[in-house]
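Question: Hello, beginner here. Any chance you could explain the protein record under this note? Any guidance would be welcome.
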Amino acid sequence: MITLAVDCMGGDHGPSVTLPACRQFLSTHPEARLLLVGLPDAFAGWQAHERAEIVPCSEVVTMDDPVEVALRRKKDSSMRVAIQQVKEGKAQVAVSAGNTGALMAVSRYLLKTMDGIDRPAIATQLPNEKGAATTVLDLGANVDCQPEHLLQFAVMGSALVSALRAQNTEPSVGLLNIGEEAIKGNEVIKRTGELLRSANEANAIHFVGNVEGNDIFKGGVDIVVCDGFVGNVALKSSEGVASMIVGGLKTEFKRNIFTKFAAILAYPVLKALMKRMDHRRYNGAALLGLRGLVFKSHGSADRTGYEHALNRAYDAVRNNLLDRVQGRIAQTAPVLESAASAAAHGDTVA
């Protein structure tokens, strides 16, 4: 039985979205159990479920609460109590749609980071034209990154993709840059490229070189590494474009009889396209590098999107993601230590 602790109060919609999503999730996952964390009043209309237990709290972290408030003042928030369930071993993973900065800060405070990891990263998947998905990290946890941090992201991302993919092959890693040439980019990116090439030579990761923004959606690599500022912009842009295209198609189909007739003929293809571009299917980002599993749902997710976040968290536990990340970090410890040492002395990697 896999147990998920759910912050039912987090996000833009709170219990009106999280509770129906939880009930639907339970109906399709007979080996799952949920700890539903929230204010007692939030469960007034909830019908008891044999695999769901209510864990009461007295506070809620709002979407605009400063990190300091979430971390120091609201010690009985639904977010904190959900993560506490993981720390105490009552749940294997926590899921929240709450304030990203607060979620990362509270998770890091309670669960601590793994040995060899300086900064946890947020990783999620974006659809690509090959019908699969490209994993991108970091997506907003770390705005300013040093080369050794980006190397750590590459290692953790490789563990994530290896855990969740069916085929037993080493995932490819690309470094997001303004061009494919090694001489391009700022000093941080150039030094990161050196580290990633050294890690590739040591068989720690499968680094294929620099990639550009459009490569995320071409599917040329399995993993794209970048700092949190760039990653968050890429994520929000992709969601906006997908929504615009899907919305435009729906509007055009209603325009006149000819487009309606064309839509009927092309419906199977268009339906498949809209499903592939539906960003709700890719909701659920892993906070990698912690000594416990935490998944972040988009704050504005609807019931379908939140259910997908629960699915991703469940799959991560089922595929032993935490152990795989720890194993990958231990395997690549010499490379990570070398990078940290070089950074401390201001050296470049040979």
